[in-house]
């Protein structure tokens, strides 16, 4: 990283920046007001504020409320005040508990000053930099955008008036930008993009030219998922799937028997109960349990009267085939800033491969590549061999789009994730059941269903519960990302120290802003490869997979950016051989902001 740019003296010349602004008591600053002469700008503001409100009040409203003392200041006076606030304690801490009156006044001044006009001078640069670099919130969250933007504007104004940044200042600003890029940001992509833009502004101010090599070094550590679903044989998978199905059937029988007007005999007679619900091995239903006040049966009958949302027991029997889907998409954490499967794409020990990957990282933010980018990328590909690049590029894209997603496939994927976790729990607690009860799964299912429906403390594995009869699709404002997720318990992934991750396969599959930009570069590149038919197929799969919703809401799509880029690149390829692919995508992708270019292309050809 090197530093250069307007407003800075040459590096290594032995000059530092001008010092922090000193208080300038004069008749011009804050006027020639009675009782205010000889005080610093903050002292004068404090006296004025103290005269108009009770600073010892514990009211948060008083802490944040705008003041006449601030409104009465001129822009130049506010600049003096802002420079004087830099060394005041508590200006970044909004907790008023235990604060002195001066600390409350300092926080109020710092909180409210950025929404007014401010004029600074060259000697204020040092104070402005301290305010920018010393605010930890500006590094970690998209808080106070007005504060950040105003400080940058004021720093630029000071530089234009003759101030300059030293090499140390540039290094501090670049370090702040690097910290912002590497910090854990909000799950909202809009906020993540704003934080990246904030880092870019700091790098521009510092004259830091961050090369593709530096980006690559930051993002080549790998994105392997430590909680990936193990790729191995599960010989008892069908046994557990059949058991879930039988438990679901039996739970429905229990609910139906209690729902009907004519109560079943087993509800009243212990002998009939024992005949209807016999014990199987160590699973022993108890008639006496129906008298317990804490039985979970209420959670079962609460669904009486509902017509939708019940699971198909046969769907449980098909669960073993869904594990492979979950395994394939659980290998990498796509929502991190690391590039998944980079070793599949490139040999980073080869400088030509490194140059190509850097080109993919540093492409501009747009749906389509520029001619200059295509020319540069194609030249790098030719030096490596187009066929070699094509093979590795398609292999890497398959990590993203294979198996190809839509709502039905994603539903199966969610079921596969839950089923794999359930198998692990069941094998751990009831490892002898598959061999011991292989020939009596229906009877075991009925016994298990009665136990979990009638006893709160049943001692069986928590994967067996009374809500297996219900589907678990998340619906928000009449929209859904899945249709048919079974009522299996959600997996709980934990760190090595026992802390929960609060994440799932769906969150790992979502694209981070960094990986969206890199994948977009791969989308542009694949269209330049010799095998046109294969490129068209890959672009279609990427578009469909990226346009699949993993959750409801505005940001529920896996990656709108990548979907738009894949569709735009596909259409830009032109030719009649893309028409069938475009037609299929127009039927598969139902988001109106994504499929509009597809319909436009089809209508243009009619």
Question: How would you sum up this structure, described in words?
Answer:
There is one protein chain. The chain has 606 residues and is mainly alpha-helical. 53% of the residues lie in helices and 1% in strands. The protein has a two-stranded antiparallel sheet. Strand 1 (475-476) and strand 2 (479-480) form a beta hairpin. The longest helix has 23 residues, at 237-259. It is globular and about 95 Å long.
What is the typical, i.e. mean, pLDDT? 85
Structural class given helices, strands, pairing? mainly alpha
Instruction: Note the main sheet.
Output: 2 strands, antiparallel
- How would the global form be characterised? globular
Oligomer: single chain
Quickly count the helices: 29
> Helicity level, as a percent range?
40-55%
Radius of gyration: 32 Å
How much β-strand is present in the residues? under 5%
The largest beta-sheet arranges its strands as 1-2
Low-confidence stretches: 1-34
State the end-to-end CA separation.
53 Å
Number of strands: 2
